[in-house]
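Narrative summary of target 7.
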Amino acid sequence: MENRTYYGEYSLWHWIELVLKQNIVLPPYQRYFVWNEKKVNTLIKSFKEKQFVPPVTIGAFKIEDTNKNLILDGQQRITSILLAYLGLYPDEQTYRSTIQRFANDNDEAEEAEEARFDNILEWNVEELTKKGRRKDVILEKVVDGNYKSIDLDIDEEFLKKNFLGFSYLVPQVKDENEQQKYYSSVFRNINIQGEPLLPQQSRASLYFLDQDLVDFFSPEFGKEIKIKVGSSETQADFVRYLSLLSQYYKNKSEAGVARGYKAKMEKFYEEYIYASVNDVRTEAYGKFSDVFPGKEYRGEFEKLRTSLDELDIPKEYTSIIDLDTHLFGLTYQILFEKKTINTSNKDDLKQELDRITQEFKGNDSHRRSPNNLGNLRMRIKQSISIYERYRI
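Modeled conformation, tokenized:
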């Protein structure tokens, strides 16, 4: 049978019920809610003025004996409708101010007390739906000051008389892996209206091509490592390290790493994901199971996580040069060579890493063009060489 797509529309009230009852849910790779308050207001105004609002896309997803309806496109719109109904908005400034006041007034308060607040900085609608299925229940559990109160002048009648369209995808597939490949493809081809995805965000859907490898491509400890410049903050891209080091490991040299991909590094990362998921031997990366037989990677990842802590490797950096110098060699020695780094000489290790980092930054070409493949290969080579002297 062919894949089917059905079309229709529901009242805003019905959409709210679907969300609260969790009859429609976010897929694991969906990003956070990113619309500002003005966009929420504009959406509601569009309904009031009977303007066109793009339909949302829902997908039927079968997991073992259960069926789920995933929000593939429309998270921002559906969430905004629910927020307008609840009279809440996840405002970062309101949240930060409340947390600061809480900290000032409760010097000896337990961390568990502060944990009652929803983290608005990494927020999506599930923070509200897990509190309950009715408006009164949810509002009763919302901590004062956690959200900004809003009033968009809508009532139940308005919600029942205004409609939002949808496309409902029903793939005809044989197994969950084939189903996930279909939806990952769909997600990456959807144009998220007005909020383009960063390459790393868009690529995240591919991590779910194999459920066993989600934590391989995006480990929790990797999300804690960041580059921060001013108010801008970017997570370390762990797939970048895995893909580049896989090619280094195969060739035992940095010379040909990413050759031919100068202007298309994102393609290099994606091809690594596909090669790993399908466990095929490739000219670029070798074969995934040669490095991680039977998908056994968690032990090495745990060793990497603890080594980051024991060696006092920073979690925050000011440039990709610093980050690469610290991370390439450590990741390579532990994950690919299956070695351990001697922590008793961590001060000497730190001095070497700092020295080579400053050397790179002192080179005008390297500092101005850190993503130049020649400079990237030099960081890979030097970082691996330094950590090799401390492995046991």
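The longest strand covers residues 4-11.
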